[in-house]
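INTERNAL AUDIT FORM
Audit reference: QA-55
Scope: verify that the stored structure record matches its stored sequence.
Auditor: D.O.
Record contents follow.
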Amino acid sequence: MPLKSALPMFRPTIFLLLCSALFILPGCVERSLSIRTDPPGARVFVDGVDVGEAPVSLPFSHYGTRDVLVRMEEDDQRGVRSLAPQQRRVHLSPPWYQRFPIDIVSEVLWPGTIQIAYDELFVLEPQDLDALSERFRATAREHGVIGPLDDSDHDQR
């Protein structure tokens, strides 16, 4: 009978040990967004912040939409060939096991590390800077704006 009377005393202790194990051995979720470019080496801006040259991998803690801008200027060939910048909204949606209320299991109770990775590829296309400059000047002329380079053309007419 002494064992049966001691069992109720151990129940709160066992419960306390189980609860503390939830905080000592929490799960872990590592989320990352990887951005690659073709050709590599372009500057990457996420939500207006320069995060470095591609390829780059960024950890994040919250899902949602990110505004990604990728641009590359080739100084050696400037005027001959340039790569058009690309801007894209990247939607990072949670997998099914990261949605409420299931996320409690994957965030806290799962004993291992869960890795979630998103990969985005930006292919930069060449652009003709002379044609881009001419389009800009034509739009400015349509709105009545004459640039300093257009003065000589205006005087000759």
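Auditor finding: record pair retrieved intact. The chain has one domain: 30-146.
Action required: none
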